[in-house]
Amino acid sequence: MPLQSINPYNGETLEQIETIDETALEAALDAAARAASAWGARPVAERAGLLHGVAKLLRGRTPNLARLMSLEMGKLIGEAEAEIGKCALVCDYYAENAERLLADEPIASDASRSMVVHQPLGPLLAVMPWNFPFWQAFRCAAPAIAAGNPVLLKHASNVPRCALEIERLFEDAGAPDGVFSTLLIDARRAEGVVADPRVRGVSLTGSDAAGRRVASIAGEHLKRTVLELGGSDAFVVLEDADLEEAVATAVRSRFMNAGQSCIAAKRFIVVDAIAETFVARLRTAIKALVPGDPLDPRTTLAPLARADLRDTLHEQVLASLDAGARLIIGGHPLDRPGWFYAATLLDAVGPGMPAYDDELFGPVAAVLRAADESEALKIANDTRFGLGGSVWTRDSARGERFARRMACGCAFVNGLVKSDPRLPFGGIKESGYGRELGALGIHEFVNAKTLWIR
């Protein structure tokens, strides 16, 4: 069955792309296996050269690649251009730092010399989502390839052209055969790739259900995995916060990418002393968002990537309202072509509502009120997710104390939760495990081998 590329702005089919057959899949796996030994043996400087080359191509092709993202998954053109720039940045970061990050680590012992050396594991399978179709793939691929591991990309089925363009970037930069390949296959066939002995590790960004399935298969075959499974990040506003800055960041965090981001602020936990003011200001800012063509720079609210995502989101909103949440603005699909949902603000959200308990993957902000700082922390940690979170206060020392007690993988004080090539990224609890980016990211898929010499 072919993969369909559909424009979320108007529902029109852009193209249909055939999946690869078993012969082509076998050829890709064999090529990755053959490449593993030679690529891992190359000096880090040579591997860095490939990543610098890819970064240069990304920057040179930004307009076309950004337009492709906007057409295929609905991302605002400005956000798409920024995403391509960030992909180039992560390639350059690992090209410039891999040698240092992978250097031998001398350790004193009873040996004449002893150390830890970092050696590649072999081919990795990257199972990536559609919401950041370039960034998610490069966030995994750049450190893996710098470490000497070939990468096989199984991308989301609704962004096949993005997947093929990523493969083309590596080809045009001179990657040896098998170092990077895109596999146009469905989820069922991907399970067989996870189990294949030629694949030595799996990185997945996606739903918790997909993560459990992949981890189960990988566990049967004793393969290393990194899982990033979404979140319901807390955005905590204390009574001494700079409300102007907090509201501006709240809108950006929640409605960027039409709210389709794992690290978007989803639960706005506001202390009672300023709750009414915060809600009023947030409503005004949300009302100003403009839905429209993602290719039009004047558009500030994009469509959702698929019709089923919009429908699921609306069901979650209705269920939250039925359970007692208060609708401030929005709360309905937009009556226009494409898969748009009105920018929505819910107040008085509490336990037992989807807006409290689950991840709302779309342009819906949920306000949860707290009596004081102590209750705000309790609510922030009262979730099965643990990806990111932020706290807003004019007292940065107070903010740091609060952030240290947040049960998540990334905590920010007076700042937008974001990924940065220099810092490790990942979650705890049902947001997954393992880390991408930074020094920890490049070490996830290497053999940290002890070397003892007399």
From TrEMBL:
Keyword set for this entry? NADP, Oxidoreductase
Per its UniProt entry, what is the enzyme's top EC class, as one word? oxidoreductase
Query: Might you give the EC number(s) for this enzyme?
Result: 1.2.1.16
Identify the InterPro entries for this entry.
Ald_DH/histidinol_DH, Ald_DH_C, Ald_DH_CS_CYS, Ald_DH_N, Aldehyde_DH_dom, ALDH_GabD1-like, GABD/Sad-like
Q: Which PROSITE patterns match?
A: ALDEHYDE_DEHYDR_CYS
**Keyword check for RNA-binding:** no
One Pfam family matching this protein: Aldedh
Q: Which GO terms describe its molecular function?
A: aldehyde dehydrogenase [NAD(P)+] activity; succinate-semialdehyde dehydrogenase (NAD+) activity
Q: Where is the Aldehyde dehydrogenase domain positioned along the sequence?
A: 4-450
Give the signal peptide, or none: none
Q: Report the family membership.
A: Belongs to the aldehyde dehydrogenase family.
Record PANTHER family: SUCCINATE SEMIALDEHYDE DEHYDROGENASE [NAD(P)+] SAD
Q: What is this protein called?
A: Succinate-semialdehyde dehydrogenase (NAD(P)(+))
Q: Which organism is it from?
A: Thiocapsa marina 5811
